[in-house]
Please model this.
Amino acid sequence: MSAGAVLAQDESGFIRAASVSKREAVVLSAIFPGLGQMTQGHKYKGISLFLGEAISMVMFINAHENYKTKQNIYDRDLNIFNSLASYEMNKVGMYYKTDADAKKLYKSLQNQNDDLDNLHTIRNTAVVVAVSVYAFNIFDAIFLSEDITESQRAERLEKKIRVSSVMIDRNPGILLSKRF
Model:
């Protein structure tokens, strides 16, 4: 190996141009929040938007399914309560036409109603969060995100900090310089 040989590889070979334009990034963001930001190099912002939307959607689906299940149970118990209130039946399911059973069933209906109200609130909150994340995502993709390629971002960084390989006394070395 000769003394003047450069041992380090040129870093410019590792810089690639972004293959997604701003318009394509907006379309990707419209498909699902965070995708456009991630393709434009804003990884943390994209992942945050993606996770925010995904979590709020999972919360909505879970609360909605629980709401439907609890609504069916509430309707069944309300029918039992109304049947016991009528004069025709003395026993419905495991409940008899007594004050103790009527109070127990009424208390159960109140608790179920409170649970339904809480699930309805969670469901609405999840929808508001999902719509807000989606709206911010579109706003960010159109107005806040720069139309900049990875190579342009690297050039900006290269102007501030430069790392290059050099030969110092016939030994390979690294030169780190910063412009002010």
About this structure: The helical segments are 22-31, 35-39, 43-85, 99-144, 150-160. The chain has five helices and four strands. Residues 3 and 169 are 9 Å apart (CA to CA). Residues 1-18 have pLDDT under 50 and may be disordered.
